[in-house]
Each structure stands twice: as structure tokens, then as C-alpha cells.
Amino acid sequence: MSFEDKTILITGGTRGIGLAIAEKFLEANAKKVYITGTRTLGLQNGNSKYFFIKSNFLDSESLNSLLNEINSLEIDILINNAGINKIDKFQNVSSEDFMKIQHVNLFAPFEICKAIIPNMKKKGWGRIVNISSIFGKITKEYRAPYSASKFALDGMTAAMAIELAEYGILANCVAPGFVDTELTHKILDQNGIADLVSKVPLKRLAKPNEIAELVLWLASSKNTYLTAQNIAIDGGFTRV
């Protein structure tokens, strides 16, 4: 897959899955890769194809600044990867925390898609991949706000894909399972990770680059007919 003539925007691209996706696009000779984040942690210095845009989706002014900048970027491929979570009992979740999660995980992708779609329509080609989660296909206790955002993201993506199909724009969700990232190790201790791994048929966490490989295929010209889907990449976890 080559992306020599494609300009890509990846939100939340400074670490973890987002950074792995950015690196894969660079390996595939992307024309330009724009990355958003609240900080530059994880970015490779000195790579001329990385264009970092500092953006905080919890700040309306910051998000609006990004939306205004998007108009001049002529994005061909959008990866909405930025997301936040807070694990807590349903009755303990504050309205403020619930809305913060919806704002970052759902409202920001909604606004960014709206800003980018006109250029894709003009070109008659575009790819949108929204990073969801297995908790947007199944759920468990203490995940109500997060699951609400990710189930909604899937519904929004599917409806959007149906509307955009006639313009040559394909839109899908990718739903990662448990991934070997800094954040996973920050949330869980070794016993917690071992417990998760025991429940995954492949008996391991996913690597970020495995998620990135699927995202690249969906975003490429090789994908000619797959749209409006929410694809779980979870080592079989959601099927057992």
C-alpha cells in the first residue's frame, strides 16, 4: 500500500495506537501526516512528514481552532483516534465526567468529520476510520459513559457512511480489544493484565502496530467495498 499522494489527519496521534498508525503511514510514504494531541509525548523528532497540531478537545476554543485549520489542509484520510475514559460505578459517575467523555469520544469526531467531508466530496474520494472499542460492541460494569460514547460512534459512522457512499467516501469503525500500550499498563497491574490475557483466545494483548495495519488497509485504495462496518480486532475476545 502506498499513500504518496495522500494527506492524513490522525487525532490522538502522539502515543499508543495513534502513534503506531502515524508511523505506518510514514512507512507507506504518505504525502503528509498531521497529528493532534494535547502534548508531544512519543513523537519522533526531526521527521519532516510529521505535522503536529496541539489540540484539546475538552476546550471549545482549541477544537474550533483545529476545525478552522482543517479547511486549508485538504485531508484525504481521517483517523479519529483520540479518546478518554473513566472507570467507575454508574451511580458514582458525575454528569460532568459523563459529558467530557461524550465530548472527546463522540462530539469531536462529529465536528471533525463535518469539517473534512467537503474536501473529500470535491475529490470524489475519501477514507474515514473512527477508532471505537470492543466496549462499543459489548460492555461490562463500570464502563457506562465510555460504552455510551463508543456505541454512539458506531451508529454515527454507519449512518454517515451510507450518506457518503455515492461520493466515493468509505467510513468504518475499528474496535480494538486489549492493547499493549502505556495506558493499559498504567491502569492495570501485572495481575490484572494476566487476568485479561487468560480470557483472550490468542492469550496475549494486541500490539499497537497490529491495529495500525488494519486501519491502513481500510484507509487505502485497496479497500473498495467495505464501508459502514465496526470491525473488532480483539484476538477473538468478543466471540467467546
Automatic annotation (TrEMBL):
Origin: domain of life: Bacteria
GO biological processes: monocarboxylic acid metabolic process
- One family from Pfam that matches here is adh_short
Question: What family is it from?
Answer: Belongs to the short-chain dehydrogenases/reductases (SDR) family.
Please report the name of this protein according to its UniProt entry: Dehydrogenase
